[in-house]
Design goal:
Layout: H1 2-134
Length: 135
């Protein structure tokens, strides 16, 4: 029985010590919160003032940025129209060149076919003549 009372006393006193330490920690935390409260309030006030100053200082910059954005939009839209016209001209020119090349290719192909046909006809006539002479 002595061992069990030893452990009861040991763990009982450890439990009491842990409870006391927890209470002291809670008390210390509350004291720290109370001590820090004025600093937190000062930090919040400083942050609010800084944000207000930043907003105030940025308003003219934002206004001028919006103005420049509108000017840029106008300039860009002018160039977009010009670029669109230029691209249209390039496309038309390419179409014309391609059409000319296609026509030239058709002509060359037709002439080649006619020349080949004439040569084949001449060769055929020659073969017929040679065959007739041998008979």
């Amino acid at each position: 029985m002595g061992v069990s009372s030893f452990f009861k006393n040991l763990f009982g006193s450890a439990k009491e010590t842990a409870t006391d330490l927890a209470n002291q920690a809670e008390s210390t935390i509350e004291q720290a919160k109370e001590a820090a409260a004025p600093y937190v309030e000062k930090a919040e006030a400083f942050a609010e003032e800084t944000i207000a100053k930043a907003k105030e200082a940025s308003e003219p910059i934002l206004d001028s940025a919006a103005e420049y954005a509108h000017q840029a939009k106008d300039i860009v839209s002018e160039y977009v129209e010009k670029a669109s016209d230029s691209i249209g001209d390039v496309i038309d020119t390419v179409k014309e060149k391609a059409s000319d090349l296609t026509n030239d290719t058709k002509t060359i192909a037709s002439e080649t076919v006619v020349d080949a046909s004439e040569k084949a006809e001449d060769a055929t006539d020659k073969i017929i003549d040679e065959t007739a002479d041998k008979e």
